[in-house]
Inverse folding.
């Protein structure tokens, strides 16, 4: 279970108002999100075969202050990572003397759908590829640079920058590519498999107990549309595979490696579970 | 001086190794379920309700408040609502039933219940290496928690 270390304000607010208010606000809020004038789809009809009728953004489950911070790009500390990513985009690295911009030019144009359509099928590797791995592939093959170490600050910033170009676009991955459908099945297995000494599956928390409180945490549907997210808790950015690993650790299981087959399958499946939700990168969490 | 030191060493040794408690301890795999009850004490040592309350609330032990609210422990922050509140739980279940629920809730409710087994090795995949073969609570902690829950009458 999550350790409690809410932002001071939120903690104070909870202390003052106590359990009663937490309970009263047990349901996801009925509110709309607009970022920089762009309306976000935070509720969407679920795709066929989905266990829920409606898919809900994690934003709807957060405290008022956390929600407000995400609503205002000037307040959102995650935007600093996006800005940093924009600098890296322009910076030459590796033996070939190139930057991302050398090949892709203006990210606002060339990257505008990326955040909403990854993971894709990587025909070379014969496995799914996400934004982090695509960045690494470009670095190695097109720049003559090293792949990033998992969760290197530059990897997270550049991923946030790339996904942010799709702000507002609804998640829509194409499962007909290559063998993505098979990986979706594999990811579904992982999602419903109980792990660890506490014997929980993803579905125990994000499906069966969605909307409930587990200690201080309001359980959302565990959607991926805001990643990388900014977290007050750790005062930094959290990548998607870091979040997956944290949730698995909380079942008291060994954590799979980032970008392992298991977590790539999970990313394909969980991204599908959020079909129709706007990309909110960088979302804000407590 | 020497006697005092030896005495202290003994007390420490006893605290770390409660041999008396181990003598009659039932291993997780040997706990007998009978009609949703576990009738035999896991240790033969009566549970201590105060210790039980601590194990109940402690995040590294029972962490029962993660899912259950309990008015009696309202001084503890953040009670979850994944599961029923436990006020008056002793009016609903006997100590033998409470022991069964805590040992392995999946044998009392359904395989699907969210409630972990606290004295069971019937757990999920890929258990963290240092926890393999270990239970969440010790046999005596289960007895203590049962004793605590048995005090919760309306």
């Amino acid at each position: 279970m999550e350790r409690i270390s809410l932002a001071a304000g939120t903690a104070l607010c909870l202390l003052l108002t106590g359990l009663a208010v937490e309970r009263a606000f047990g349901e996801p809020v009925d509110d709309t999100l607009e970022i920089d004038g762009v309306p976000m789809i935070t509720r969407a009809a679920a795709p066929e075969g989905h266990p829920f009728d409606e898919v809900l953004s994690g934003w709807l489950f957060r405290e008022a202050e956390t929600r407000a911070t995400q609503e205002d790009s000037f307040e959102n500390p995650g935007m600093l990572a996006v800005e940093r990513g924009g600098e890296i985009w322009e910076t030459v690295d590796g033996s070939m003397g190139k930057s991302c911009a050398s090949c892709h030019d203006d990210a606002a144009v060339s990257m505008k759908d990326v955040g909403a359509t990854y993971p894709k099928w990587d025909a070379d590797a014969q496995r799914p590829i996400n934004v982090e791995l695509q960045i690494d592939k470009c670095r190695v093959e097109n720049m003559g640079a090293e792949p990033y170490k998992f969760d290197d600050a530059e990897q997270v910033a550049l991923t946030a920058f790339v996904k942010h170009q799709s702000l507002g676009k609804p998640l829509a991955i194409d499962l007909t590519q290559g063998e993505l459908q098979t990986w979706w099945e594999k990811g579904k297995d992982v999602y419903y498999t109980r792990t660890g000494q506490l014997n929980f599956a993803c579905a125990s928390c994000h499906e069966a107990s969605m909307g409930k409180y587990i200690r201080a945490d309001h359980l959302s549907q565990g959607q991926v549309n805001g990643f990388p997210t900014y977290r007050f808790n750790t005062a930094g950015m959290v990548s998607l595979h870091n979040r997956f690993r944290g949730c698995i650790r909380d079942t008291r299981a060994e954590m799979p490696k980032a970008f392992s087959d298991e977590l790539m399958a999970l990313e394909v499946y969980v991204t599908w579970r959020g079909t129709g939700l706007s990309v909110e990168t960088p979302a804000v969490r407590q | 001086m020497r006697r005092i030191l030896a005495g202290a060493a003994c007390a420490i040794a006893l605290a770390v190794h409660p041999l008396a408690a181990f003598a009659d301890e039932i291993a997780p795999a040997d706990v007998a379920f009978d009609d949703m009850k576990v009738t035999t004490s896991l240790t033969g040592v009566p549970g201590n309700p105060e210790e039980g309350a601590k194990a109940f609330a402690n995040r590294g032990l029972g962490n029962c408040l993660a899912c259950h609210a309990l008015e009696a422990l309202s001084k503890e922050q953040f009670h979850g609502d994944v599961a029923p509140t436990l006020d008056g739980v002793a009016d609903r279940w006997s100590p033998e039933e409470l022991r069964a629920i805590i040992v392995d809730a999946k044998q009392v409710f359904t395989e699907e219940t969210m409630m972990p087994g606290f004295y069971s090795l019937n757990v999920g995949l890929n258990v963290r290496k240092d926890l393999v073969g270990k239970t969440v609570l010790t046999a005596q902690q289960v007895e203590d928690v049962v004793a605590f829950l048995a005090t919760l009458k309306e």
Remarks:
- Chain A has a mean pLDDT of 92.
- The CA atoms of residues 182 and 265 of chain A lie 9 Å apart.
- Chain A touches chain B through 30 residues (CB under 8 Å).
